[in-house]
Amino acid sequence: MFRRKAEKRSSFRPFPLREETGCLLNPYRGFYAICRMYADSLILEEKNIPVTQYIPPREHTLVLLEVNLQRFRAGDLSGAALENIGAALEHFASLNVAVILRFTYDWDGQGALNEPLSLSIILQHMGQLSPLMLHYGPQIYILQGLFIGSWGEMHNTRYTSQSHLITLAEQLAACSSPHTYIAVRCPNQWRTIFRCYSPLSFSDVRRSAMQARFCLFNDAIMGSETDMGTYGSLSRSESTSYTDKLNRYDEVLFQTQL
Description:
The chain is α/β, with parallel strands linked by helices. Helix content is 31%, strand content 13%. It contains eight helices and six strands. It has helices spanning 2-7, 79-94, 111-114, 119-135, 162-175, 187-194, 209-213, 248-257, and strands at 32-38, 62-68, 98-104, 140-144, 181-184, 214-216. A six-stranded parallel beta sheet has the order 1-2-3-4-5-6. Helix 2 links the parallel strand 2 (62-68) and strand 3.
C-alpha cells in the first residue's frame, strides 16, 4: 500500500506571483507618528490641532503618544486631564492604531527639576491612570518608561535608586494590563529592578509574570558610541553590581537573550 502511493509522481505547478509595491498594513510594523499633548489640553503640541482630529499617515499602524503631566507635579491629576487622555486613547482605538504610550513630566531636558518632589505623587498618578491603562490595554502596544527623567527616558531624575525603580516598576505593573509590555530605558535599569544579571529563560517565563512583561526601549541608537549612555565600559566579568552599565558587546548579548 505504501509502495503504490510512493509510486505516484508529483507534478510541479507554478503559482502565479505578483509584485506588491503598495503599503502592507501589518500591525506593529515599526513606523509610527509622534504625538505630544499636555494632560490638561487636547491640543497636540507640534501639530496644533486637537488629538481627536489627528489622522496618522495611512502607512502607520502605530503612534507614540507622549502625555506630559508636568502641570500636575504638585498633586492629583484633574478629572479633565483624565478625560483628555481617555479621549486620545479612544481616538486611536477607533482608528485601529496601536499606541506606544509614554507619560512624562519633562520635555526640556530637565527631568529632575520638572518631576514631582515626592515619589508618592508619581505613584498616585499611576493609580489614577490605572482605569485607562486597563481599559485600553488591548490598544496599548507598550508602556515606555516609569514616568521619570528627562523626556520620560529615565535619566536626569531624582529617582534612580534601586528602591525607587522597584517601587515604580511594581506600581506601574499593578496599574496596567497584565498583557501590556513595559519598557525601561537601559539594560542596567532592568537588572536593577529584578536584581539579576540574566533574564528568565524561555521555559521559565511563567515563573514571574512581572519580569516577563519588562523589556527595553532605546531612543539613542547610533547617537554615539555608547548610544548616549545606554552602554558603559565594564565587562560582565568585571561587574560587581546589577546597576553597572556593561560594554556594548555584553549588553547586546543581554538584550538578545531578553
